[in-house]
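// run 5 | inverse folding | seed 20
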């Protein structure tokens, strides 16, 4: 492998081009290095992030003009600097030598005592090139090697001379039944068992490769035979410093073990049956029984396997597993191993949940995944966080002052004029209603969809219900308040008006969606599920740490609604209709829980988007180039122009049967459920798709809520769920970029392909570019300039 690049790049950071700076410039020219000179810290950082220099030399002689240590820390904070050599130029002093620990702590590789002589500078560069730089280039090359090991289908383990596990790739961890990183640093508990153990040890201790089969114990205690090659690696002093083991699991032996277990089980079962039929046979000679067992062992083996294969198993997934098992019998070893990994994946219960790893270079994404997608089971005993459920605003009817659209103040009417459009500004309505937008917007939207007529409830009851629900949102929350609820209600109503949705959902589905949007965050405490679980809150205990808030929102909404006839919008419904509506509402509210985010999106893509594309292809829709990569959610967007929009059939569909097939596919109860889940999920997190000014406001509000949670976690000594949301250090632009990248883009690509939302996607693209173009500054200085 070639370690040395064609030309080393050097970055000089000097506030003025003095003799020292010129000395390094001449030295770079003499050595044939590419040299760049900058005078300011910000310029230097931007230049490094653009060109990724091998050597950076920073003037550390005058801290008033350049904070060299701060610049070094900024550069080291980027993962791109992992293999960069950074030198600090310090003054030559006559007094006692000072300690270099502060330089090392700041991230400097070494210091250079000022000497402007071009030859001295040249010698320094040569020492760096053949010393630190070459070592860093070797380390950089190791990253590609480890990337290859990580993706290798062979199970690979590296141990030290003392048999401490230094590295195990994912294939090895999977083979042995361990989680990622669980083996690192552990000592091999048991020497592998081999018939020729002495031969194994003699071979590897003589610095030769050994290959053969040995038996090791997996995490669950099972013994497994492995075909392994052990390679000793010679290191310093000519001694063996590491052992590399390349392993292939012997599937045939495992199958033999399983068959043997089956035979033993059958023999035991038949013996027990014989005892029940004739207890006098219990006195039979043991040798006779053993002999009989041996005689029929081959027959039992055949009959056992036959009975297993003849079992009727109704679950589709078990049928798939049986087919794969049968295919393995006649497959070559590489195919058998690949199918083993397929079976391992299929046996999980979370078939649509992606197995994603943390992004080491994106702490914001890590924290968002940890805080929103994890189940939050990191409690500390003795801590408790109690919600305000004992102070719920279930006001008596006499205190409720109904409002009507007939006597709404003019400023509120003006604020709701554009509520049917996506660019409707919910913050104007919030201001006009003195932070009570839900009641007014709810009345107008529910009237537009005929909710009272469907529920058979008087408008007075609906008004009282909306007021009661809004009263139970916490106005003190920066984000999760009734304005957020009204915003989600508006987005839900907007999606329900799209032609594809109108063709697919029933009136009951529409009413369920509108009610679910209204109640989906009622009594939200402004803290995440993970926080409540860590704090041991009453709700976390009540709901067993699972979707704590979402269960609470749904349960409380029905408790409040059915607890007062004057607010009970369901009281005139037929029982069956009410139960169907109730289940639909609950399902949609629970869908807003983020731990199932990727599962919901993947199901929608695989069960709605892709079959829809296939049906449209059958209807003579021209094949798009993107159809060859249907595994990508983003590929769905290119199909939007070929989709059906409402009752307008694509002219490329030959007959009405194609339209009927599509409608039939979409309108099954299961698929309508998936569509409703996706609808409310997109409505719930649509902030990045709003106009820029609204997007920025929502970002400020959710960040403030997360800041407050982090403050309380530190104050109460709880686990900090999202450490990047520290109000003193957080970069809001970076958090938004990570959120959009990780959660929003794929979901809205899929939703846009189904519904056709060019306006939203335009806003999403513009907002992402806006956040991407910002520096690391506080949000209050990031507002768009006034027009």
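// decoded
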């Amino acid at each position: 492998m070639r370690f040395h690049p064609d030309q080393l790049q050097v970055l000089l950071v000097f506030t003025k081009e003095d003799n020292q700076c010129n000395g390094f410039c001449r030295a770079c020219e003499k050595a044939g290095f590419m040299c760049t000179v900058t005078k300011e810290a910000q310029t230097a950082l931007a230049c490094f992030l653009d060109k990724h220099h091998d050597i950076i030399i920073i003037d550390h002689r005058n801290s008033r003009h350049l904070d060299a240590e701060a610049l070094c820390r900024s550069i080291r904070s980027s993962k791109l600097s992992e293999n960069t050599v950074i030198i600090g130029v310090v003054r030559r002093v006559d007094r006692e030598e000072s300690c270099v620990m502060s330089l090392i702590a700041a991230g400097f590789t070494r210091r250079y005592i000022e000497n402007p002589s071009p030859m001295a500078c040249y010698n320094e560069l040569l020492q760096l090139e053949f010393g630190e730089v070459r070592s860093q280039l070797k380390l950089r090359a190791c990253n590609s090697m480890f990337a290859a090991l990580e993706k290798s289908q062979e199970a690979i383990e590296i141990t030290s001379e003392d048999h401490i596990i230094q590295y195990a790739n994912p294939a090895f961890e999977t083979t042995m039944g361990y989680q990622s990183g669980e083996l690192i640093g552990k000592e091999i508990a048991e020497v592998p068992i081999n018939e020729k153990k002495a031969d194994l040890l003699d071979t590897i201790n003589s610095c030769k490769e050994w290959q053969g089969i040995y038996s090791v114990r997996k995490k669950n205690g099972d013994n497994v035979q492995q075909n392994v090659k052990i390679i000793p690696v010679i290191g310093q002093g000519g001694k063996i410093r590491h052992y590399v083991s390349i392993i292939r699991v012997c599937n045939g032996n495992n199958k033999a073990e399983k068959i043997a277990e089956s035979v033993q089980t059958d023999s035991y079962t038949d013996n027990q049956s014989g005892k029940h039929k004739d207890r006098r046979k219990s006195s039979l000679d043991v040798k006779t029984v053993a002999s009989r067992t041996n005689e029929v062992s081959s027959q039992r083996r055949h009959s056992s396997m036959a009975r297993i294969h003849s079992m009727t198993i109704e679950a589709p997934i078990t049928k798939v597993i049986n087919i794969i098992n049968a295919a393995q019998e006649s497959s070559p070893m590489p195919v058998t191993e690949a199918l083993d990994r397929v079976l391992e994946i299929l046996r999980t219960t979370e078939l649509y949940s992606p197995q994603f790893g943390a992004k080491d270079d994106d702490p914001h994404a890590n924290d968002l995944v940890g805080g929103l997608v994890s189940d939050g089971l990191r409690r500390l005993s003795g801590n408790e966080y109690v919600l305000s459920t004992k102070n719920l605003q279930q006001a008596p009817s006499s205190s409720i002052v109904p409002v009507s659209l007939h006597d709404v103040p003019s400023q509120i009417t003006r604020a709701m004029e554009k509520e049917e459009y996506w660019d409707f500004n919910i913050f104007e309505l919030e201001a006009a209603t003195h932070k009570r937008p839900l009641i007014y917007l709810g009345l107008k939207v529910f009237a537009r969809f005929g909710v009272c007529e469907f529920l058979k409830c008087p408008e007075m009851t609906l008004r009282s219900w909306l007021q009661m629900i809004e009263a139970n949102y916490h106005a003190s929350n920066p984000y999760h308040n009734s304005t957020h609820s009204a915003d989600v209600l508006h987005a839900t109503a907007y999606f329900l008006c799209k032609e594809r949705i109108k063709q697919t959902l029933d009136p009951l589905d529409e009413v369920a969606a509108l009610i679910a949007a209204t109640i989906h965050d009622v009594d939200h405490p402004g803290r995440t599920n993970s926080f409540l679980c860590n704090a041991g809150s009453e709700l976390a205990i009540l709901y067993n740490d699972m979707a704590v808030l979402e269960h609470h929102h749904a349960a409380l909404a029905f408790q409040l609604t059915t607890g007062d006839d004057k607010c009970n919008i369901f009281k005139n419904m037929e029982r069956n209709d009410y139960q169907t509506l109730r289940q639909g509402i609950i399902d949609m509210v629970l869908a807003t829980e983020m731990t199932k985010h990727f599962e919901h999106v993947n199901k929608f893509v695989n069960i709605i988007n892709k079959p829809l594309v296939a049906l449209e292809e059958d209807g003579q829709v021209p094949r798009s180039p993107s159809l060859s990569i249907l595994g990508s959610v983003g590929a769905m967007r290119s199909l939007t122009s070929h989709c059906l929009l409402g009752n307008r059939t694509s002219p490329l569909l030959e007959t009405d049967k194609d339209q009927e097939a599509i409608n039939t596919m979409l309108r099954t109860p299961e698929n309508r459920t998936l569509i409703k889940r996706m609808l409310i999920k997109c409505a719930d997190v649509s902030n990045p798709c709003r106009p820029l000014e609204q997007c920025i406001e929502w970002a400020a509000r959710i960040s403030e809520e997360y800041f407050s949670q982090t403050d309380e976690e530190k104050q109460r000594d709880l686990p900090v769920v999202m450490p990047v949301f520290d109000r003193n250090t957080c970069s809001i632009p970076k958090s938004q970029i990570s959120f959009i990248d990780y959660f929003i883009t794929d979901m809205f690509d899929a939703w846009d392909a189904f519904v056709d939302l060019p306006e939203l996607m335009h806003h999403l693209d513009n907002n992402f570019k806006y956040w991407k173009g910002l520096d690391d500054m506080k949000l209050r200085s990031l507002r768009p300039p006034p027009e």
